[in-house]
Amino acid sequence: MNILAHIGRATLSLLMEIGRVALFLKDGLLQGLTPKIYIRQILEQMMRIGYFSLPVVGLTAFFTGGALALQIYQGSSPATAGTLVPNIVALGITRELGPVLAALMVAGRVGASIAAELGTMRVTEQIDALVTLATNPFKYLVGPRIVAAVVTLPLLVAIGDTIGIMGGYVIGTRTLGFNGAAYIKTTADFLSLDDVTSGLIKAAVFGFIIAVMGCYHGFNSKGGAQGVGRATTNAVVSAAILILAANFALTSLLFGN
Amino acid sequence: MAEAHIVLENVRKSFGPKQVLNGVNLSVPKGHSLVVIGGSGTGKSVMLKCILGILHADSGAIRVAGENVLGLKGSARDEYLLRFGMLFQGAALFDSLSVWENVAFGLIQGRHMARAKAKDIAIEKLGQVGLGADVGQLYPAELSGGMQKRVGLARAIAADPEIIFFDEPTTGLDPIMADVINNLIVDCVKRLGATTISITHDMASARKIADDIAMIYRGEILWQGPAKSIDTSGNAHVDQFIHGKAEGPIQMDVLKP
Fold it and tell me: Does the distance separating the beta carbons of B86 and A132 come in below 8 Å?
């Protein structure tokens, strides 16, 4: 009986949370993405979300590309390795690992920062102060973060893809002994525009998820420092899970039969 | 008697099963300074937030200059909020903005004033609360609690509002700084001719800044009258509160050892 009650409570709690996120999303989109648009805030957030995430995304992509090259080499025969390594590194990075890993890193770096900043603003009444100064918090805080994340994540992923393929190239040519020109030619021949654009579409969706989860948990944080800490954790965890789920759904949609 | 500027009629607000405002009736004449006293958790801040529309009252009427303002939305709400200034308990300054940008925020964002002109006004208002132009370049984290309150006051009066709310203006300050803030409030309000509602536990502050005092207890106004008659109110709750006695009709839920 107790187990059933627990399951029931957990289910109700999950459904209520989904409902609250849906209502927040409605306000975020209807109020946050309609005029008045705060251009200055959008540019500032693009710097914070995009530009300052470049080092972490670049390093992640480089090492992932290198590791991928090593693993594929181990799994292929000497005769096919010269073709398989560049092909699979390029495909793996552009279609899956580039967008997913970049999004997970940005969720940790930016999602947490958004939730902590908005959470602190909530518990110190700064969001209420915005309202009393005739400024809609959805337009001033939520809208710019969503726009900035949706625009900059694809840019970040495009750069990350390039660096990731380069990571594979460096390991392929320096450690595995492939010819550099042949590696690049094989990559260019095999990689299609669809592979890249599918990753960029995913990145835009992941950016939306990161910004919405950060804003939602920050906006609804309560209870002082502990509440802000909880909001930060929830923002990162929920964004990470949703990114992985959305990745599966998008892969099925874009590449499924 | 001046005409009523702010009128609350039977205003109720609950959070789940907890009834916080239990039929508040209150009237503030134009240009008067009303101080609402009462213990923690009696609904003082909730009452102010209901008037501002930050919280939505469940029922009753809130009239400002004769107009019922409950449920205002969109541009009508923005117009309504432009009539207010508010000093928050913790000042609620925006951490990411410099002091002058905090003071000028409502002018730039709410009233679309040019930044240069808004900055001049912000520096002038900082001067009115005893802070030099050099303070304008600092960030809130670099200021003491008393200076933050002064900046909050400068922000509240920046647009010369017709109504100003002060939420616990002297809480957390030493007695001398508290008196400095009280004097500034009296000076600013006199200069602007604004209608004000202040909420406080601090009787010295209440006596200094109030024309009228109201006492709230369990979400209801128990007594309202001129500040000078507070000592002869004949209300046992008011007497216990202003003399700070543990014995009386107001019982705190304290576990006895």
Answer: yes
Q: Is the Cβ pair B52, A132 closer than 8 Å?
A: yes
Flag whether pLDDT at A134 surpasses 80.
yes
Q: Tell whether the model's pLDDT for residue B74 goes beyond 70.
A: yes
A134 — contact with chain B (CB < 8 Å)? Answer: yes
* DSSP tally for chain B: helices H, then strands E: 8, 10
Q: Which of B86, B29, B42 is nearest to B211 (CA)?
A: B29
Nearest Cα neighbor of B11 from B49, B65, B66 is B49
Nearest beta carbon to residue B81 from set A121, A126, A132: A132
Q: Is the pLDDT of residue B212 over 90?
A: yes
Which of B64, B73, B83, B94 is the best residue to mutate to test the A interface, defined by the most A CB atoms within 10 Å of its own CB?
A: B94
**Closest residue in chain B to residue A135, using alpha carbons only:** B110
Q: Which residues of A touch B53 (CB under 8 A)?
A: 131
From the list A56, A24, A50, the residue with the least C-alpha distance to A156 is A50
Q: Determine if residue A238 is left, alpha or beta; phi over 0 gives left, psi from -120 to 50 gives alpha, anything else beta.
A: alpha
Looking at residue A28, its pLDDT comes to: 87
Averaged confidence pLDDT in chain A: 94
Percentage of chain B with pLDDT > 90?
61
Q: A47 by DSSP, 3-state: which?
A: helix
Say how far apart CA A149 and CA A187 lie, in whole Å: 29
Which residue, B14, B95, B179, A191, is CA-closest to A183? A191
pLDDT computed for residue B233 by the predictor: 85
Interatomic CA distance for residues A38 and A139, integer angstroms: 7
> What integer is the mean pLDDT of B78-105?
94
Radius of gyration of chain A (CA): 21
Distance from the A124 Cα atom to the nearest Cα atom in chain B, whole angstroms = 6
What is the reported pLDDT for B130? 87
Contact yes or no for B230/B238 (Cβ under 8 A): yes
Residues of chain A neighbouring B106 (CB-CB closer than 8 A): 133-135
Q: Which of B92, B95, B111 sits opposite A128 (nearest CB)?
A: B92
**Which of A51-55, A122-126, B29-33, B169-173 bottoms out in mean pLDDT, i.e. has the lowest?**
B169-173
* Predicted complex ipTM: 0.89
Does position A149 have pLDDT exceeding 80, yes or no? yes
Helix axes A112-123, A193-219, angle to 10 degrees: 20
3-class DSSP state for residue B233?
Answer: coil
Q: Mutate which of B48, B52, B86 to disrupt the A interface (most A C-beta within 10 Å)?
A: B86
